[in-house]
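Q: What does the assembly look like in three dimensions?
Context provided by user:
Components: two
Sequences:
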Amino acid sequence: DAKTTQPNSMESNEEEPVHLPCNHSTISGTDYIHWYRQLPSQGPEYVIHGLTSNVNNRMASLAIAEDRKSSTLILHRATLRDAAVYYCILRDVEDDKIIFGKGTRLHILP
Amino acid sequence: GAGVSQTPSNKVTEKGKYVELRCDPISGHTALYWYRQSLGQGPEFLIYFQGTGAADDSGLPNDRFFAVRPEGSVSTLKIQRTERGDSAVYLCASSLGTSPLVEQFFGPGTRLTVL
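A: Here is the predicted structure of the complete assembly.
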């Protein structure tokens, strides 16, 4: 399975944008980039996914490098509720399950 | 609408005992997944069902672990002869299918503690 590399933890101030990086240098052409997050004491929840083009939804934006070897999850205006572990995951079009790494623990400072 | 529910939310048992953990997926979701999460780690895949059949059980750590989904809806994860190393949060997820284009919806998990 293609792997991802994320920082163990990050800090950001409330009401400021947050950019969460993910490296995936061995990504294949059929790998989708997914992001899930896990709030304290909850199960993970889907955030966003993309293949080649940048994606936006109500929760976040996903910026994908032109060579697809890295991507960035962008929270436009962080709130305290965004404090969570964020997982960057690659899923091949044939993959039927999610393989999680350790993710990035995001701390939001009031 | 109702999300994925798991019962019990907490389970404390003694080493050597048998436990059952239940998952109620979102109605209509054909795919159901079980994961295990140890402290400080990401969820680890155990098994998934497509309908009633186990499509991939490659993540089950050994033959003490077994899961069923007899009617294609509710699933039960069964652990025999529990060991202290089985202590973890057991997560269940469901989805409309197994495609990577379909998101998985997770339950809150069952925290299992083996004394």
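Follow-up: The CA atoms of residues 6 and 23 of chain B lie 5 Å apart.
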